[in-house]
Design brief:
With about 120 residues, this protein is α+β, with helices and mostly antiparallel strands. It contains four helices and three strands. It has a three-stranded antiparallel beta sheet. Strand 2 and strand 3 form a beta hairpin. Helix 1 runs parallel beside helix 3 and helix 1 packs across helix 4. The protein is elongated, with a radius of gyration of 16 Å.
Length: about 120
């Protein structure tokens, strides 16, 4: 019996979902922990005009971070670090307060929020 090999389109789609999960996961942790609304997130399956298989973060200061699968497919483990850094550079946490939820927040973003509001 031959081993099953997934078609390329399926592997590509799965990698895209992993890219979206890395970007949106950090974006969600950031937003829930800080309450900052300076950043928006979208991806190519939801927004026309974006390159296929891409995610985009956009800041209130006009900066944008576009992550295209073809550039990141072999290094998805680096995405979270990049997104975290970019969010920190393009958001203003001064005066932000997280929504009252049961979510305790992300430790990294709690620390950044505290530093910004000392």
């Amino acid at each position: 019996m031959d081993e099953y090999t997934a078609p390329e389109w399926l592997d590509r789609y799965k990698a895209f979902k992993s890219l979206c999960a890395a970007v949106s996961g950090e974006y969600i942790r950031f937003g829930l922990t800080t309450g900052c609304e300076d950043i928006s997130y979208t991806h190519s399956q939801r927004t026309d005009g974006l390159p296929n298989y891409s995610c985009r973060l956009e800041a209130a200061d006009g900066a944008a971070l576009m992550l295209e699968l073809d550039e990141w497919r072999g290094r998805l483990d680096e995405v979270r670090v990049l997104v975290r850094s970019w969010l920190g550079e393009h958001s203003n946490l001064r005066g932000c307060k997280p929504a009252q939820t049961r979510y305790g927040g992300d430790e990294y973003w709690r620390t950044q929020l505290q530093r910004a509001n000392q």
